[in-house]
């Protein structure tokens, strides 16, 4: 089981946590929503929860709850810039389909 960050994503997370002045790492999960069923949740974590599964990637701690891990195991999180837009991109090998707007997915 693993969640990985690209170097670009790790740099972005590290810079943001430095500006925040605090933070343990990045919390990644899923929630039920959207037209395809699941959507990613992404937030900065300031504390460890007892059920968290921890991963290290390029010096960044990634925390995932066990229920979400089933849907995102093997995911690589990238940070991309396309024209004037920038943001995280999820490369999840478990995804079977995505909605047209790209906000939700199905496994």
Commentary on this structure:
- The chain is an alpha/beta fold and 107 residues long.
- Helices cover 20% and strands 45% of the residues.
- It has 2 helices and 9 strands, in the order βαββββαββββ.
- It has helices at 7-20, 66-72; strands at 4-5, 25-33, 37-45, 53-57, 60-64, 76-82, 85-91, 97-98, 105-106.
- Strands 3-2-5-4 form a 4-stranded mixed beta sheet. A 3-stranded mixed beta sheet has the order 1-6-7.
- A hairpin with a 3-residue loop joins β2 (25-33) and β3.
- The radius of gyration is 14 Å and the shape is globular.
- The model has no long low-confidence stretch (mean pLDDT 89).
Helix-strand blueprint:
Layout: E1 4-5, H1 7-20, E2 25-33, E3 37-45, E4 53-57, E5 60-64, H2 66-72, E6 76-82, E7 85-91, E8 97-98, E9 105-106
Parallel strand pairs: 1-6, 2-5
Antiparallel strand pairs: 2-3, 4-5, 6-7, 8-9
Give unreliable regions as ranges: none
Helical segment count: 2
General shape: globular
Give the end-to-end Cα distance, rounded to a whole number of Å. Answer: 16 Å
Helix content: 10-25%
Beta-strand level of the residues, as a percent range? 35-45%
Mean pLDDT: 89
Structural class: alpha/beta
Largest sheet, described in full?
A: 4 strands, mixed
Number of strands: 9
User: What is the ordering of alpha helices and beta strands?
Assistant: EHEEEEHEEEE
Oligomeric description of these chains: single chain
Name the strands of the widest sheet in spatial order: 3-2-5-4
How large is the radius of gyration? 14 Å
